[in-house]
Fold this sequence. Notes:
By secondary structure, the chain is of the alpha/beta class. The protein has one domain (27-161): 3-Layer(aba) Sandwich (Glutaredoxin). Helices cover 34% and strands 22% of the residues. It contains four helices and seven strands. The chain has helices at residues 2-23, 66-82, 97-106, 128-133, and strands spanning 37-39, 45-47, 56-61, 87-94, 113-118, 140-144, 150-153. The chain has a five-stranded mixed β-sheet. A hairpin with a 5-residue loop joins strand 6 (140-144) and strand 7. The longest helix is centred in the first third of the chain and has 22 residues, at 2-23. The N and C termini lie far apart (52 Å). 28% of the residues are buried. The model is unreliable at 9-23 (pLDDT under 50). It holds the Pfam family AhpC-TSA. It comes from Neolewinella antarctica.
Amino acid sequence: MKQKLFIPLLFLALYFGGRAWYFSPNATANELAPDFTATRADGQTFSLSDLRGTPVLLDFWGSWCGPCRRESPVLVDLHERVGGELTIVSVAIERDSAAWVRARTQDSRFWDYQVMEQTTSLKFLNGPIADLYGINSVPSNVLVGADGVVLGVNVDLLELFD
């Protein structure tokens, strides 16, 4: 009887363990955040390393993602409260730029660092920055310290208010 339960339990453990591993970003706390260069919505180019000196929240999201859209009010509130002390870089993984622009406006995402990564597949969320950070699900975030070192991955945004 015990052996009959062992195989299904082993399968479930492997499935959920593998799923948790796959969907976790590959950025690691206490390591230097991978640098990237991107073009903001206003056409200006920047690099993550240009933002050193202030903490940065890399916010990976999509206009098509319900949980991402529900998280927008928290990000807006965070930006309004600590805008000068924390730079939010929102990286939208999108297939449709018009939907991205509409969602940014509807959700009041008006901070400067808005980037759209064109993807061919929302299933795999491919894009240069998402790939660099191992992003396989959204919403995801990476908190980078003023020195460019990763402080945390998928941090609770409400804790950043403290």
